[in-house]
Amino acid sequence: MINLILFGPPGSGKGTQAVKLAEEFNLYHISTGDLFRNEISNETPLGLEAKKYMSKGELVPDEVTIGMLSNKLDEQAGKVNGFIFDGFPRTEPQADALDKLLDLKDTSVSLVLALEVGEDEITERILDRAKKSENPRADDLDEAIIRNRFQVYLKQTSPVAEHYKKADKLVTIVGIGSINEIFEKLKDAVNEIK
Length: 194
Ligand code: AMP
Prior knowledge:
Elements: E1 2-7, H1 14-25, E2 28-31, H2 32-41, H3 45-54, H4 62-76, E3 82-86, H5 92-104, E4 111-116, H6 119-132, H7 143-157, H8 160-166, E5 170-174, H9 179-193
Helix pairs in contact: 1-9, 2-3, 4-5, 6-7
Adenosine monophosphate is lined by residues 10, 32-33, 36, 53-54, 57-60, 65, 87-88, 90, 94, 139, 149.
């Protein structure tokens, strides 16, 4: 099994690249942001809870997020070649939980691909994404919320990179350039461990 994590700030291109990598390496794509948005549109209790945090650009509490992720892993276990995690883990407890959940399935994180993009570029990209979308995400419409998401990333998520650096599983890639240029770099990094 290959299990990849796409790491990086909001708007760094994780979602776009995750879809391409999933297709290239035949992996199951799990985006916790998409799972939450799906729960919100179905107006489930989990969605209503998540919305309270997402609308402010804050993280959904770990127990809610880890529970949802664990259900998804159980649902797909044995059916797929591996996973690509997009937007998870975002905290140290989430990283520990992922290690344990994968260990229970006799597998582990193979590689963490970290995309590097700065705050101003991120803000511009997300505002542009909102403008071009017919159905923009609520948290993409307001610059203050976007900047808060970036700050949350710096404070709560970026330290998680250290967890994988220690395990020698972290590869950092500059996330500026065309989608295909960045995809080629990501693909090369994955092919090196195959
Ligand atoms: P994303 O689509 O990855 O940008 O996520 C959108 C929002 O969903 C985030 O700003 C958080 O509020 C929430 N979210 C997504 N993934 C996580 C996670 N792993 N932990 C906590 N909150 C998350």
